[in-house]
């Protein structure tokens, strides 16, 4: 993912560092990292450069994540429902793209079975999740870069809508479950952490040096499609434990 940003930034003659990996506790689920970051030492020269650098990461990530997921699913095991794990079982949400790939690889599965994911498949799922989070159209996320490159200062409305949506997904199920006759409604409080991070680092995107020249038609279409891709990659409850 970050190497995609790096090589495209170098193509535009920008000063940029190699990726720095962010370590994280390897337990309880063995991820061991919170991803990576690169440091841009020079400003974005144009909205075209901003768009290309922003889109390169998600494309590079998906080009790796999808084949890894397919390979991992081929090595995963279909078992009777509720037969997975021991004391603690990590349940993963299934975004639309994951469901499509799973159906392609494993075929249609009845509700009476679960899939015990091979670690390779889990890595592919994490790749889809990371790409989804980066495509959120706000701030300095890849989706924020793309949204600003396509819509300019009008991106603020999309960023604010994203922020409100994250809060709603984080606290909405809690209040719904308090209503009589409603529930249980599953939820994930991690959305509130993402909303907090966006509020700390800011929803707005700084302008490029050339903030006047608009994107061409093909790039605008690709940008809209990239933001729409978020619908295929996101799931309301990415993680749950039972």
What does this protein structure show overall?
It is a single chain. By secondary structure, the chain is mainly α. It has one domain (2-152, 206-241). The protein is built from eight helices and six strands. The longest helix has 28 residues, at 47-74.
Keywords, please?
single chain, 242 residues, mainly alpha, two-stranded antiparallel sheet, 52% helix, globular
In short:
With 242 residues, this protein is mostly helical.
Total separate domains: 1
How many angstroms does the end-to-end distance come to?
Answer: 31 Å
Main sheet strand line-up? 1-2
Largest sheet geometry = 2 strands, antiparallel
In N-to-C order, the SSE pattern is: HEEHEEHEHHHHHE
Secondary structure: elements and pairs:
Elements: H1 2-11, E1 20-23, E2 33-37, H2 47-74, E3 77-80, E4 90-92, H3 96-106, E5 113-116, H4 119-134, H5 142-151, H6 155-176, H7 190-201, H8 217-233, E6 239-241
Antiparallel strand pairs: 1-2, 3-5, 4-6
